[in-house]
Write a structure and sequence with these properties.
Distance between the termini: 145 Å
Mean pLDDT: 80
Shape: elongated
Strand order of the largest sheet: 3-7-4-6-5-8
Oligomer: single chain
Helix content: 25-40%
Largest sheet: 6 strands, mixed, barrel
Strand content: 15-25%
Order of helices and strands: EEHHEEHEEEHE
Structural class: alpha+beta
Amino acid sequence: MAEKNSPPSSQAAPRVQLWDTPQGWTPKPAVPQARPPGSHSPVTIQPNSLSRTKARYASFVDRRLPSQRYLGLKRRTFLWTLLAIILSLLTLIIGLAAGLTARSKHQFLPLPSNSASFTGDLTYYGPGLGACGITSSDSDSIVSVSHFLFDREQSGSDPNQNPLCGKMIRAERFDEEAGAKRSVDLKVVDRCTGCQPQDLDVSPGAFGRLASMDLGRVRVTWAWLD
């Protein structure tokens, strides 16, 4: 019997490891070879957005303002000076606008400088020691003006020295029950935190001379006397 010759080593089939699995013998998956140290894929470094922005800005400035002296100043110094002037002008404009807005609001407050008559709510409270430093009773003809007015006229830290303290107000209303017009002169002695600019908060005695106490809140017309 002739013997089978083995194939030359150069032509030998590659050795394949097999795994015993339920589906039968299957080739073992190849294990990826580790990359040798020092072998890396080439990386292309792109310029970041900040560098591109700087380059575009420099190109824009160079086209508009060539590198030379302006008003005797270097270009960089000239640009910084110009920026400072623009910011100062913007600050001045904003400040003037805020001042004009505040002044226009104050012009509509019912202050003694305004000779017009005003209409607001009339209420009453239990008086005592007021913001003007004056102690009053229920029967006194006194009034507490809105905090909007009181705070607007306040110029120092002592509320007793507020220019509105001691000012006189004449309040009037038509009494439907009596069918007649009533009025009372009131002295400013306090500050009302819950009042709107044209509201008045008076003593119970003053309220009773203008309306029935049962009403609690009525409309009233008033004006400064001095």
